């Protein structure tokens, strides 16, 4: 498939900037345009060779492919601004962490042009933000979910799939509903929990003491709480229905632990150990899967291995 002659990145941060660098490195793109709110960040992107020119949304609408990498709550306004200026062949895609809401925003804003909108989600990132955080290998050997919708042109989906393959990513097709359920569980809930724990401890009277003695366990559990509050606010709100379902399940498990701890009988303590053991087996199996490609064992309901 031919390379992308002109790519526009709306939101030149870690996600959008890394896509531009990866495509430049692989020779899959010609010219990269950048749109952003901060002149300083766009200057960084120009200096680092991530983009070739900083432009307006009206100018970005003339690109062959437009990648929207803003917080999901801003995407509807971006689509609205792009719509009057789009060229007929332009493909629009996104990198948002929620999909059902983004598809609905695209349908409302883009009208007939929604057939050229390809919803996608690269499963990669760090807690750092901004153009200076971008690097070309971010997507190598990582997953990218590409979703469909009832108006989508197949050739537009092919262009976006090829674009992501050019970064070294593995492509996975998934419905928007399944996507939002899965990522509420494995991404949005962990972020909510990390932010909530740090916020709780920081507000405690003995906060200074807590943080003075916090070490590697606290660091590992809360690393993702260093991410963008604006971005995670938008993701949490956009996927609130699925996130609340996962939060209810987590709260129920916490109630189990509270009950076992309150009772303190040997049988209750053994329940704690059994839950820890199931979690440890599942976590270690997942670690071997992502690091060494070992198959994941089938897990029964409640986390027990079959």
Please give the order of strands in the largest beta sheet: 3-2-1-4-5-6
Give start-end ranges of low-pLDDT stretches.
302-306
Distance between the termini: 44 Å
Number of strands: 9
What proportion of the residues is helical, as a percent range? 40-55%
Q: In CATH, what is the homologous superfamily of the largest domain? A: NAD(P)-binding Rossmann-like Domain
- List the domain count as a whole number: 2
How does the helix and strand content classify structurally?
A: alpha/beta
Query: How many helices does DSSP assign?
Result: 12
Q: Please name the CATH topology of the largest domain.
A: Rossmann fold
Order of helices and strands: EHEHEHEHEHEEEHEHHHHHH
Radius of gyration: 22 Å
Mean pLDDT over the full residue set: 94
For this structure, what is the CATH class of the largest domain?
Answer: Alpha Beta
What brief labels describe this structure?
3-stranded mixed beta sheet, 306 residues, 6-phosphogluconate dehydrogenase C-terminal fold, alpha/beta, Rossmann fold, 6-stranded parallel beta sheet
Short description:
With 306 residues, the chain is of the alpha/beta class. It contains 12 helices and 9 strands.
Structure commentary:
The chain has a six-stranded parallel sheet with strand order 3-2-1-4-5-6, with helices on one face. A three-stranded mixed sheet has the order 7-8-9, covered by helices on one side. By secondary structure, the protein is of the alpha/beta class. It has two domains: 4-174, Rossmann fold (3-Layer(aba) Sandwich), CATH 3.40.50; 178-303, 6-phosphogluconate dehydrogenase C-terminal like domain (6-phosphogluconate dehydrogenase C-terminal fold). Helix 4 (75-82) packs parallel to helix 5 (100-110), helix 7 crosses helix 11 and helix 11 (240-263) packs across helix 12. The chain is built from twelve helices and nine strands. The chain is elongated and about 70 Å long.
């Amino acid at each position: 498939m031919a390379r992308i002659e002109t790519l526009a990145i709306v939101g030149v941060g870690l996600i959008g900037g890394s896509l531009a660098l990866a495509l430049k490195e692989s020779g899959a793109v010609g010219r990269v345009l950048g749109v952003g709110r901060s002149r300083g960040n766009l200057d960084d992107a120009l200096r680092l060779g991530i983009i070739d020119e900083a432009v307006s949304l009206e100018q970005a609408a003339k690109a062959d492919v437009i990648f929207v990498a803003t917080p999901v709550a801003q995407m509807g306004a971006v689509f609205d601004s792009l719509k009057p200026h789009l060229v007929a062949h332009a493909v629009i895609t996104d990198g948002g962490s929620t999909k059902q809401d983004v598809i609905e925003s695209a349908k409302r804003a883009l009208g007939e042009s929604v057939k050229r909108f390809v919803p996608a989600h690269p499963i990669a990132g760090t807690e750092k933000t901004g153009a200076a955080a971008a690097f070309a290998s971010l997507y190598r050997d990582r997953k990218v979910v590409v979703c469909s919708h009832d108006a989508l042109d197949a050739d537009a989906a092919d262009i976006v799939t090829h674009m992501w393959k050019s970064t070294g990513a593995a492509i996975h097709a998934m419905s928007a509903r399944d996507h939002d359920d899965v990522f509420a569980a494995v991404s949005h809930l962990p972020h909510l929990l990390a932010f909530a724990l740090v916020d709780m401890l920081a507000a405690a009277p003995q906060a200074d003491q807590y943080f003075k003695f916090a070490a590697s366990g606290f660091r590992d559990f809360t690393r993702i709480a260093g991410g963008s509050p604006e971005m995670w606010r938008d993701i949490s709100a956009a996927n609130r229905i699925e996130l609340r379902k996962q939060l209810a399940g987590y709260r129920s498990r916490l109630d189990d632990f509270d009950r076992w701890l309150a009772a303190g009988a040997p049988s209750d303590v053994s329940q704690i150990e059994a839950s820890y053991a199931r979690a440890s087996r599942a976590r270690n199996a997942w670690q071997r899967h992502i690091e060494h490609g070992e198959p994941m064992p089938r897990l029964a309901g409640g986390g027990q291995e079959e």
